[in-house]
Amino acid sequence: FNETSNQRVPTVAAMDALLGSLPPEEIYLPPPGRSARDTELVQTRNMIQVPHRYIPMVLNKAYRPRDLWRELAGAIRNDGKATELEPLLTWIRVACTGTRDDEDGDASPKSHMGPSDESLPPLDIDEELQTYIWKVLCQDIPALASPDSMTPLNPDPALAIVRTLREENELARAEREAERRAKEKKDADKLKPSKSHPSFYNRWMRNCDVAHEDDLELVYHQWCKVKAGERRLELQAAIDNRASQEGAAGRHPPIVTKELTETTYMGNLGAHPSQVNDLTKGIHPFTCGFISGSSPHVAVRIEMYDSVMQGNTQPTVAEQAAFSKKEVPLPATTYECGSMLRATSLFIDTVQGETNPHAEAFRAFCTDNWPDIEDMLQQTGEPETVGNVLPRILRAVQINMVTYFNAIAMGRTPSLPDYAKLTEIIQLQEWSKLQSLPITYLIPRDNPPTGPTPIASLSGGSGGSSGGPTGPKKTNDSSPELGEPKIQPDKERNEDWIAAFASSGKTVNAIRKNAPKIKHTGTGKKVAICLSWHLKGRCFEMCTRRDTHHKLDGEEKKAMAEFVAQECKNE
């Protein structure tokens, strides 16, 4: 790598013209004179490195200097690398140009840097050895066999073989990758609702109020992955999961029956107009009212149904008939009624989406309006009246929901059910505006109530229905979850707050939205305070805000005092 002395050579721009005019039999350009135009003095080394990209062009090849300029220098300039590889171009220019022994002498081949037959004869390498050497070089220097490598003028047969094999491998790999992606796309299409359930996915989209199937609720996508016998289990799991989430209306999910599964799957959440008096049709509190853990006979029936759907057992005709019993739960207490409403909210959140406008409206009715309705009904002190009213309240909810879902099924955009209007009717005790239960579900009262516990006497209007036809008997399983709610007194109640609230003449529901929030004792999050406990001195044992049933101190007490002063003043 010793440097040469100064050599006068043509400039890069002049090389092409000079070599083009050189006779074919000549190897070198004639040495330029000192004053020759388009020349310059340069200095280079006796040996020069060739970048990896261009090695295939010169490896095991014997080029004449002029051919080396045409092939290698031409490739370098075409790639725009002339500035970057200027030392290599200078070396080639020196190799192409004859030199002088003195300023005025003739060219001296002995002092020329280019290879010649006399000074550096080509090395004769065995063909098999040459192929092996090239294979090793390609392993050590992968760029030699890359598509970016320059193809030599006379490609080596071994290089051509290696390149062909590599191209064949790449082509085979590309084909396998294309097949894999096509299979993945095909499998993904199978899991889309529009492919796996083409008859129902449009109804699902209407019920969820979404424009694209990808936006459907998770349970519908899960149904695309499971067998028909597992649909009920997936729907039950989705509702159970919703019950465990923050912001849900309740914590006790409904039992997903055979009817609920089929109704949701087929997308007909309402009921045919001719079936509006059949309380087992559609999505509403009567069909969603069997609560997990409190209806053992329904749970047993569902367990048998799951076993049959999964092919584990073969039912008898009687057992098959039992899967679709025309039976609905009927509330005997305000707490049971509230549990049925909250379970319905969980179901609607799951199949419509918790952000769906109807799901939000009904959830607000269950969490904001029903506690005040429950409180008002408990204070009436008339068990028979309460027992008559509870089923009729659920009947009003059922009619609202069925009407709404039927309009959606017909492709309309209906207004949301007016649950606020229903709340007003109940609070004003305008019972005549509540529709009676269908006569099929009226149960005669053989023994009038004698105790303080409300009973589910299902007479329509204001009178009883003695001796009428009987329908399915109501379920009244004893359960710690759905038993008669106990009212707890506040032994440390603030009499000033209670007196101020009583004298204001306002209801808890009227001022609930401005209630102060305090830290939840369990989660540490801010929750609205229970106004019934602090302004009435009592509340239910299972109140959803029971974590605020304690004496307030410090900032919490100050905030509550300011709230009472603002909201409970006489106007």
Strand/helix succession: EHEHHHHHHHHHHHHHHHHEHHEEHEH
Secondary-structure class: mainly alpha
Report the radius of gyration as a whole number of Å.
45 Å
- Annotation, overall tally of beta strands: 6
Cα end-to-end separation = 105 Å
Q: In one word, what is the shape?
A: elongated
The biggest beta sheet, please? 2 strands, antiparallel
Number of helices: 21
Instruction: Return the average pLDDT rounded to an integer.
Output: 78
Which sequence of strands runs across the widest sheet?
1-2
Provide a concise account of the structure shown.
The protein is mostly helical and 571 residues long. It has 21 helices and six strands. Helix 3 packs antiparallel against helix 4.
Give a written overview of the molecule.
- The longest helix is centred in the first third of the chain and has 34 residues, at 157-190.
- The protein is built from 21 helices and 6 strands.
- Strands 1-2 form a two-stranded antiparallel ribbon.
- The protein is mainly alpha-helical and 571 residues long.
- The N and C termini lie far apart (105 Å).
- The radius of gyration is 45 Å and the shape is elongated.
- α3 packs antiparallel against α4.
State the main characteristics.
single chain; 571 residues; mainly alpha; two-stranded antiparallel sheet; 21 helices; elongated
Write the layout of secondary structure elements.
Elements: E1 7-10, H1 12-20, E2 39-42, H2 55-58, H3 65-78, H4 86-96, H5 127-140, H6 157-190, H7 193-196, H8 201-208, H9 218-223, H10 231-243, H11 258-266, H12 296-309, H13 317-322, H14 334-352, H15 357-378, H16 383-409, H17 419-427, E3 487-489, H18 495-504, H19 508-511, E4 517-519, E5 526-528, H20 531-536, E6 538-540, H21 554-567
Antiparallel strand pairs: 1-2, 3-6, 4-5
Helix pairs in contact: 3-4, 5-6, 10-14, 14-15, 15-17, 18-21
